[in-house]
Specification:
Length: 66
């Protein structure tokens, strides 16, 4: 795992087309803004895990819109 320190309004890039920006920091919560192409699914971990469980349960590939 790569660990980076960023301040508010600072960004990191993943590849050439995914940008993650620290939007706000309040106490122990950090708000992130994510810019990615529409074909790249972006989910919170709990949503991603629910999608994976549903796919495993049904044996299908479920595509969820952002």
């Amino acid at each position: 795992m790569l660990v980076l320190s960023r301040q508010r309004d600072e960004s990191i890039f993943i590849g050439d087309n995914i940008k993650i920006t620290v939007v706000d920091i309040r106490g122990d919560k950090v708000r992130l803004g994510i810019e990615a192409p529409s074909e790249v699914p972006v989910h919170r971990q709990e949503v991603y895990e629910a999608i994976q469980r549903e796919q495993h349960r049904t044996g299908t590939s479920v595509e969820v819109q952002k």
